[in-house]
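Students often ask why we bother encoding 3D structure as a string. The short answer is that it lets us treat folding as translation between two languages. Here is a chain of 357 residues written in the first language.
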Amino acid sequence: MGLLRIMMPPKLQLLAVVAFAVAMLFLENQIQNLEESRSKLERAIARHEVREIEQRHTMDGPRQEAALDEEEDMVIIYNRVPKTASTSFTNIAYDLCAKNKYHVLHINTTKNNPVMSLQDQVRFVKNITSWKEMKPGFYHGHVSYLDFAKFGVKKKPIYINVIRDPIERLVSYYYFLRFGDDYRPGLRRRKQGDKKTFDECVAEGGSDCAPEKLWLQIPFFCGHSSECWNVGSRWAMDQAKYNLINEYFLVGVTEELEDFIMLLEAALPRFFRGATELYRTVGKKSHLRKTTEKKLPTKQTIAKLQQSDIWKMENEFYEFALEQFQFIRAHAVREKDGDLYILAQNFFYEKIYPKSN
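And here it is in the second language, the structure alphabet:
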């Protein structure tokens, strides 16, 4: 018996295709609406949590007016650069905050704009310095460096950060915009549907993979000056280096994240006590956020990007940060049987005068 074939008329086929396309657009719109509703709910919950904490501290009474001791008055700002394992590291802070008794706050800027308006800078500095209910506090967000000294602040926050090989960071960001990651797999990304590989983008001279897109880590460390965001500015790179050395407590690299966490725990146990063990036992599996569908670029693609003066500057800054991090690590740890160990205190006091009776 021959196979029975039911052929659909061309008009019905076209109608079916149109109906399917409309249904898909409707579903995408519904998903977008749900995501927006979720964001609004998250903001409402965050505001409610803040009010609860403030009310709890108000009921406690005297602590609000009393001066906080040194450790309780501590504020850390992690002005995280996109696609540098920042979510992975931040999740460690969230996991430890209840146990170590500090607050974690996300700095959510409109459209992830890393440059704040002058009036928002004033508000932010005031929040950070006078919001006692949120101290000790760990603030994180995609915001460029802000010099608190400009605003007459006596006690500045502690800045930390992590940076990454500039081409690896750009490749990760390129695919992230198209395919998202395993952290929020259902979220629709800005470039979703674009199947073009990073290699193809570079070969065609696309804007999303242009050398100008490498210019990000330098301005994040440089700050809020206009010249910081002038692509290829030598002054911006020099300022970024100056800030890294003089204004940042510690800057790690994505490729050596565990060592960065270990140093933070040794130096700032008030926040990071237990962080190394948590990362080793849980963090490497559950915290590492992986971009979906990422394809490594070819040697030809890498070589083409490396011809750019912008890459040379971003890479010079990355190498500068890496050298500084490795210098700090070399003086803080020792290796034994393939593992790193934090050095014990290596200084003491003697010949103390005048002698007590």
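Translate back mentally: The two ends are 115 Å apart (CA to CA). Keep this in mind for the problem set.
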